[in-house]
Amino acid sequence: MKKIEHIGIAVKDLNIANDVFAKLMGTPHYKVEEVESEGVRTSFFKSGPNKIELLEATRPESPIAKFIEKRGEGIHHIAFDVEDIEAEIARLKEEGFVVLNEKPKKGADNKLVAFLHPKTTNGVLIELCQESVINN
């Protein structure tokens, strides 16, 4: 793993959260994007090398909607940038982690993504991210 790629925060209303984080970070979001397969609309903020991803559910059965219903708004996941996501998935499976995606899938911000189950990562949902060679 190369670095923390971003921290994902589940929010009820992306427009309100964008205003809050713009004030907090002193800069507007640089991208809003919908990931239809996940039922989520995302917004990204950047401060130096650090990124925050806000996530709003677009349908009631989406993972973000379920997360907010169960836990409320807040930190949803920590994403790590990896060089070779398929090799990293294989390595982590061998180490005993439960991988939620056997194959990487298209995520937001031109990334291939896969997730590790929080029951094997001390209660934290971990996202693996690799820059996609194909632009969205």
Automatic annotation (TrEMBL):
One Pfam family matching this protein: Glyoxalase_4
Statement: the UniProt record of this protein carries the keyword Transport: no
InterPro entries: Glyas_Bleomycin-R_OHBP_Dase, MeMalonyl-CoA_epimerase, MMCE/EMCE_epimerase, VOC_core
Domain VOC: 3-131
Keyword ATP-binding: no
GO molecular function: methylmalonyl-CoA epimerase activity
Domain of life: Bacteria
Keywords, in A-Z order: Isomerase, Metal-binding
Enzyme class, UniProt record, top EC level: isomerase
EC number of this enzyme: 5.1.99.1
Similarity-based family: Belongs to the methylmalonyl-CoA epimerase family.
Protein name: Methylmalonyl-CoA epimerase
Gene behind this protein: mce
